[in-house]
Amino acid sequence: MGTATMVRNNFQTCIEACDKCAQACYICYDACLNEPDLNARKNCVKMLVECAQMCEMSSALMSMNGQFAKEHCNMCARACDACAKECSMFKDEHCQTCADICRMCADECRRMASM
Asked: Which Gene3D superfamilies does the record match to this protein (predicted)?
């Protein structure tokens, strides 16, 4: 994913991780809705949407160099960790892939917040 300008944002790696995570969460959400055990995935499905929205907001705040970007990224890391935990309980590929991407995003958010 590229940026709209030639100037690279200091947080670009984390922005891209958040964007990738949000997309993975929405893909997993859509796939989970079609799984036969949807009721067992209720908490996971809710967490997928919450995580995706946290990632989208973190990406936006970093893009504008918002004053609460670091604080929000700390919360985003927690949401990504929780989402990874939920997704990892299900063995299908979309959940496992999403869990991996959530863990990567959580690490990136923690790294950015400590800058």
From this structure: 1.20.1270.360
Q: Where are the domains of the chain?
A: 12-113
Decide yes or no: CATH 2.10.25.10 for domain 12-113: no
Cα(32)–Cα(55) distance, rounded to whole angstroms?
Answer: 19
Place of tokens 């918002």: 66
Compute the Cα dihedral for 69, 75, 79, 80 and give only its sign: positive
* CA 43 to chain CA centroid, nearest Å: 16
* C-alpha separations of 49 from 8, 25, 45, 110 in Å: 28, 7, 7, 20
Alpha helices in 36-92 (DSSP H): 42-63, 69-87
Q: What is the pLDDT of residues 24-41, one digit of tens each?
A: 999 999 999 999 999 999
**Residue 23 · residue 42 · CB < 8 Å:** no
Distance of CA 57 to the CA centre of its chain: 10
pLDDT per residue as tens digits for the range 85-101: 999 999 999 999 999 99
| 3-state class (DSSP) for residue 83 | helix
